[in-house]
TrEMBL record:
Belongs to the short-chain dehydrogenases/reductases (SDR) family. GO terms for biological process: monocarboxylic acid metabolic process. The keyword Oxidoreductase applies. This is SDR family NAD(P)-dependent oxidoreductase. Gene3D superfamilies: NAD(P)-binding Rossmann-like Domain.
């Protein structure tokens, strides 16, 4: 299926690994030119850059000016058609709500919510100038499946969902679409890495990694499919929503969680 993304200009945040890297690969495969923002880059991203369709920009998206600086790189390419707000991180709060400081709350909101808000704010005028555009924001199942262990992350992702819906109403008449994706557990460093959710639980509870991994998933309801979502599966949904194949889809959120959420 041709998604009609050839020649489109896209910005992806948190692009060095996981869902962001997969989104870059998927966009390039569809013929888009990608500006990939990340704090440190990666060897895998460098491989994409070598192919000629990706520009890697090192930027701290948690800083107030970072997102706008990243978006500005699209000016050199003639404009902006697609923004994928992906950057984010979760810290387990195993000591409870009362122990989370204002600074920790601010840090979580800066990276998981304000980075997307700021990037979107910088992107909208450029998309209007191009006659339209698409913003796809990676949220989380925790937006509507709150978890005390990631209470600040859950709140930030709920805010992302609300922001996307609100913007779809304000800018729909200007041919801008805003949609979000809510993944459940994904095969990324956030979940399965050395300092990810599963390993953190294992370290703090004295069980092995595989036991902790199973316990974390079970505590949220378990997968109907029996498996984690892959970054490429999320990326496939990203490029569909960014294309005119989904031309009348806006203000929507798409759950991809292997059946983790059991309610309607």
């Amino acid at each position: 299926m041709d998604l009609g993304l050839t020649g489109r200009i896209a910005v992806v945040t948190g692009a060095s690994k996981g869902i962001g890297l997969a989104a870059c690969r998927a966009l390039v495969a569809e013929g888009a030119t990608v500006i990939a923002g990340s704090r440190t880059g990666s060897a895998a991203l460098d491989e994409l850059v070598a192919g000629g369709s990706v520009t890697s920009v090192l930027v701290d998206l948690g800083e107030p000016e970072g997102p706008a600086r990243l978006i500005e790189f699209s000016d050199d390419l003639g404009g902006l058609d697609i923004l994928v707000n992906n950057v984010g991180a979760a810290s387990l709060r195993l000591t409870g709500f009362l122990q989370i400081t204002d600074e920790q709350w601010a840090s979580t909101m800066a990276l998981n919510f304000m980075s997307a808000l700021r990037a979107t704010r910088a992107a909208i005028p450029r998309m209007i100038a191009r006659g339209g555009g698409n913003v796809v924001t990676i949220g989380s199942v925790n937006a509507f499946l709150p978890d005390p262990g990631v209470i600040d992350y859950s709140a930030a992702k709920a805010a992302i969902w609300n922001l996307s819906k609100s913007l779809s109403k304000e800018f729909g008449a200007q041919n801008l679409r805003f949609n979000s994706i809510s993944p459940g557990p994904v095969e990324t460093a956030l979940w399965l890495g050395e300092h990810g959710v599963a390993q953190t639980v294992a370290t703090n509870t004295g069980v092995d990694f595989e036991t902790a991994k199973a316990q974390v998933v079970a505590s949220q309801g378990g997968f109907s499919t029996g498996r984690f979502t892959t970054p490429s599966q999320v990326a496939d949904l990203v490029i569909l929503l960014a294309s005119n194949r989904a031309g009348n889809v806006t203000g929507a959120d798409f759950l991809i969680d292997g059946g983790l959420v059991k309610t309607l």
